[in-house]
Amino acid sequence: MKKPDYLILVCNSYRVAGDAQGYCNKNGGADFIQYIAEECADRDIDAAVTSTACLNVCAQGPVMVIQPNNLWYGGITEDRIDEILDALEDDEAVEEYLIAD
Questions:
Q1: Contact assessment for residue 63 and residue 23, using Cβ atoms and an 8 Å cutoff
Q2: Is residue 1 part of a domain?
């Protein structure tokens, strides 16, 4: 198996009890997964896109993390996702949306 170039994680607020009930889930986290996967495919970005349990930064959600770059983005929307993926294609980050150093 060839590893993808990127792993894109989207917080979906899963809790220990298994229910997705947090901020990211209620604000589109689940819908963003398919959107990001389709955008990556359209742009030929080699990425695996998946959801995560709660990333514990609810106040800055919805949250998306791109590995191996270790880029943590907050407040994602479809428009911001487009900007983030544009930057990723150029091996750059969108500094104004980053929530962690």
A1: no
A2: no
